[in-house]
Structure formats: C-alpha cells, structure tokens
Design brief:
This protein has 86 residues and is mainly α. The protein contains three helices and no strands.
Length: 86
Amino acid sequence: MAKKKLAESTTEFDRRFDAGEDIHDLIDMSKAKIIRHGKKVRLTLDIAESLVNDIDDIRQRMGVDRGALIKVWLHERVKQEKTAIK
C-alpha cells in the first residue's frame, strides 16, 4: 500500500482527521512522548454560579467536558507561571 501524502499544515491535518480519514500514516510515532502525571488528587472548589455558567457556555461551544476544560486551563496556566519564574 502506498504511503499517503503528508499534510502540509495543521489545518489540513485537522480537516483530514475531522473528515474521518485514517491519519495513522501521517503521524511519526518515533517522536511521540508518553507523559505520566503521577498520582491523581481530587480537588473540591466552591465557585460562583455565574462563573460555572460562563465555563459551561464555553465548553458547550467546544464540545468538551467541564472538568476536562478546567484541567487544560489549569495546566496551561501552571506552565505559563513556571516559565515566567525562570
């Protein structure tokens, strides 16, 4: 089987993925990294209802789970703060 033509941009890659195309031949797994974040810890937060509603509006537009969105945001912010400290 002939190898598929690689995507020339992330936009093209995303389009092909979203179209249901098999993208396995387009990924160089030799450069993939497995990240293990260690033991998970449960947090409980009291947040204003209006903020939760705003978060829900955003996550619904994106089509993701509230917890997943908050985790991504926390990860991005911690990474940003760690970079700023150096």
